[in-house]
From TrEMBL:
It comes from Neorhizobium lilium. Residues 3-76 form the Lipoyl-binding domain. This is Biotin carboxyl carrier protein of acetyl-CoA carboxylase. One of its GO terms (molecular function) is acetyl-CoA carboxylase activity. It comes from the Bacteria. Keywords: Biotin, Fatty acid biosynthesis, Fatty acid metabolism, Lipid biosynthesis, Lipid metabolism. GO terms for biological process: fatty acid biosynthetic process. Pathway: Lipid metabolism; fatty acid biosynthesis. This protein is a component of the acetyl coenzyme A carboxylase complex; first, biotin carboxylase catalyzes the carboxylation of the carrier protein and then the transcarboxylase transfers the carboxyl group to form malonyl-CoA. GO terms for cellular component: acetyl-CoA carboxylase complex.
Length: 77
């Protein structure tokens, strides 16, 4: 198992906007470079991209959760 970590502190969002589907859903596969969410810092949004590939993503951070840099966002098999 591997973890995808937050690159910076802020608010984690699983989709680009409330009316959009999440970038990835629990159980999805992930390739290197896939966007798994956004971190909002002072009204600026930064894409969180997977640095490793895997399958069966399971999010440990909920949508709109405040996160710290290095905090786990999701687990991958």
């Amino acid at each position: 198992m591997a973890q995808l970590l937050s690159p910076l502190p802020g608010t984690f969002y699983r989709s680009a906007s409330p009316d959009q589907p999440p970038f990835k859903a629990d159980g999805d596969g992930v390739a290197v470079g896939d966007v798994i969410g956004l971190i909002e810092v002072m009204k600026s949004f930064h894409e969180v991209k997977a640095e490793i590939a895997g399958k069966n993503i399971r999010f440990v951070a909920d949508n709109e959760d405040p996160v710290m840099a290095g905090a786990p966002l999701a687990d991958l098999d």
